[in-house]
Design goal:
Structural class: alpha/beta
Order of helices and strands: EHEHEHEEH
Strand order of the largest sheet: 1-3-2-4-5
Number of domains: 1
């Protein structure tokens, strides 16, 4: 399951989450963001219960995007223990993302 996060629930869903969280920072007008959506959905199902997956619309939540130094999208950030531990920018292969997620639970 993919959670939608925003300024109102980012702390609870990402920073205070006991599991690692992969956050997809995206916007509806971003072609590469849309192209990655099927892979993100598959990974959310494959890692369910081990790594949470969340989407944050940067247009609707500019303060969070700015605080995370997001300069381009898609940006995927892996949070562990409430801190960002990995950043992947741009269209990325599903197997690379799976590797990052696997490493987070190893």
């Amino acid at each position: 399951m993919i959670k939608t996060v925003s300024e109102s629930n980012f702390q609870a869903e990402v920073v205070k989450n006991e599991r690692p969280v992969l956050v997809d920072l995206w916007a509806p007008w971003c072609g590469p963001c849309i192209a990655m959506e099927p892979a993100i959905k598959e990974l959310a199902a494959e890692f369910e219960g081990k790594v949470d997956v969340a989407k944050l619309n940067v247009d609707d939540n500019p303060a969070i995007a700015q605080s995370l130094d997001v300069m381009s999208i898609p940006t995927l950030m892996l949070f562990k223990g409430g801190k960002p531990v990995e950043r992947i920018v741009g269209l990325t292969a599903k197997d690379k993302l799976a590797g990052v997620m696997s490493a987070a639970i190893a």
